[in-house]
Amino acid sequence: MYNYFINHLFRCKPISMVGAEQLLLDTHSLKTVLLDLPSIGSQVLRKAPASYTKIVVKGMTRAEMILKVVMAPHEPPVVFVDNYIKLLADGNPETFQKILDMKGLKRSEQSSMLELFRQRLPTPPSGPDAGPALSFSAPTPEQESSRIRKLEKLIKKRIQ
Question: Model confidence over 131-140: pLDDT tens digits?
Fold first, then answer.
């Protein structure tokens, strides 16, 4: 569900600062409603299950971070790239490209930003002493659908 929402965010291009701010507010409101969803209509006031809360927070926080990066000024480019890496921890150049598209940058500006992005990505340590490598990959569609199925089962249990 969250990848679906994020993919639709990426379709908003170019997006103005005011539009990005409004989307950020709307995303936060949606996150709040989703977190309250398990207790809506219930006579007993209970906290949502931790697993449900974790999934909602993780997915919607990623959407919020994308919008915060879109709202950030792209000058100077080094600061913008570092801000992206810090907020999203995503080493995927395609995601970075989508954010540049959302900002409405020209292709000439985008190519220099992409090159800077590739240069500034943290390189995982290699060799026998290397620790666990950082993974920047998004969940696979199978993992995401599994999460959604778990979430649906959880919601059905609560309703019954």
Answer: 444 444 455 5
